[in-house]
Amino acid sequence: MAYVIAEPCIGVKDKACVEVCPMDCIHGTDADAMLYIDPEECIDCDACVPVCPVEAIFSEAQVPEKWQHFVRVNSDYFKGKR
Amino acid sequence: MWQTKPVKPRSYRIVGPQQQVDERTTPHPRVERGELGDRLLNWRKTRAGQDPFRRIFGVGGGDPNNCLQLIMKKAPEGAVNPTPAPIPEPTEMARRIKEVARFFGADVVGICHLDQAYVYSHRAKANPAAGEKVGDPVHVPHRYAVCLGFSSDYYRFLSNNSRISDAEYGLGNQRMIPTTFMLASYIREMGYPAQSHDYSKGFVNPIPLAVNAGLGELGRHGMLIHEEYGSRIHLSVVTTDLPLAVDEPIDIGVEEVCKYCMKCARTCPSKSIPFGGKEVVKGVEKYRINVDSCYKYRLAGRDKWTNCVICVSSCCYNKPTAWWHTLAIKSIVWTPIPLRVLVVKPLLWIDDLFWGKRPWKHMKWLGYDNAPEPAICTTPGCQVKHTNLQHKPLHDPKQAAKASLSRASVSP
């Protein structure tokens, strides 16, 4: 299980989560619409959740139904990049 | 006959039936079964690398015959001398056993009754030399537990998340082995059964026993806090039937300090230490640690370190031995419990002022240097600015509480 960034991050990319992530597992480029969590690196510590200003981060088991596809979006982002 | 009421520990409270813990459910065996993921499993097998300290301290990769822990793991327990020596009454015997333990190398010693709740129910590791298999039931029928504490170097621990603090931590694990083995052997040669429980092999949880034996109190970070050494103390236990007078739990103000301090929770990189109050875990009211995220954070070491110890370093009880530290602790202890907050809060303010909100020290030793290195991102194309741990913001209890409320409102 890992944490997942969902739709509210799109266009916001506050990056407060990047600052607190102990594993440095939140990534993205300037061209990306949002940030992504590497599910293989995430340790489920929850540190990113309280600092997100738009409440875009959820544990995989708690992603709202309407944003379920973001679980795949996050993991797909890292395919071919490892 | 006049009897005093037994003293109960203040830092944890038994509120329901306690359950023995199966050693197979503890973190190391779970990682070795791959239950915390393939990356951690792979890390556990290969984490030693080329560092000679790590190879001799038994973290995998080195020659097992160069590792005291792995050699002693196979060492059999000797026989009990069939001709018991005459022994003095329990109070004098306890005094002598403590003296022997210190002579063998322990820094602090305490004695308590062996509560079977703190004996593992089943073993997690096989010992083919003794014909013992994984899952065998554990029997430790002894009446007493002699708890030994071994302190670590303050400054090396303060260089946390480095090979220096790693070496110090590893040494602490190894130091306890010969002392514990010798004390158990000494008692057996006196003619009484005894078993050593240390880093090489052991079947008891030393922390609650050490609290009951008056070595310290249970902290918010789930470890023993000793009056002088804080939590930079490794614990081992010798269980025995040798009649001994037992010690009583002590009060060094941990209950009040942990309530207001929360320095470990603020500094824990993996946010594994709670800001909130105590919870009931297996019949015991105490602070609940997120063991999984704590363990997984070891992956952040990226082959540079394996034991974080930030919570140990940041604990306000963790100070070098000095008169002002003793005075600070005594000023809490001598204050009546309802008024302690008036002493604790100013002391915590002073602690932050002089020792920092995130205690850490740059150190060079034997060619090791723990200077913060820039964070390196291995994801191609990533443009976010990763920061070194020393530059990451501390966790905020208010934000954590807000997120917790928010989650509670969306959960079904």
Average pLDDT rating of chain B: 90
- The helix count of chain B comes to 15
Q: What letter string, H or E per element, gives the SSE order of chain B?
A: EHHHHHEEHHEHEEEHHEEHHHHEEH
Structural class of chain A: alpha+beta
Global shape of chain A: globular
Number of strands of chain B: 11
Kindly report the greatest chain-chain contact and the residue count on each side: A-B, 30 and 37 residues
- The structural domain count of chain B equals 1
Radius of gyration of chain B: 22 Å
Reading the helices and strands of chain A in chain order gives EHEEHEH
Strand order of the largest sheet of chain A: 1-4
CA-atom Rg of chain A in angstroms: 11 Å
Brief write-up:
The complex is a heterodimer of chains A (82) and B (412). Chain A is of the alpha+beta class and 82 residues long. Chain A has helices at 16-20, 48-51, 69-77, and strands spanning 3-5, 26-27, 36-37, 57-59.
Walk me through the structure.
The complex is a heterodimer of chains A (82) and B (412). By secondary structure, chain A is α+β, with helices and mostly antiparallel strands. Chain A has three helices and four strands; from the N terminus they run βαββαβα. In chain A, strand 2 (26-27) and strand 3 (36-37) form a beta hairpin. The longest helix of chain A has 9 residues, at 69-77. The model of chain A has no long low-confidence stretch (mean pLDDT 91). Chain B has 15 helices and eleven strands. The termini of chain B are far apart. The chains are: A alpha+beta (82), B alpha+beta (412). Chain A binds chain B through residues 15, 18-20, 22-24, 26-30, 35, 38, 40-41, 43-47, 49-51, 55, 62, 64, 78, 81-82, and chain B through 39, 269-272, 290, 292-293, 296-297, 299-300, 375, 377-387, 389, 392-393, 395-396, 399-400, 402-403, 406-407, 410-411.
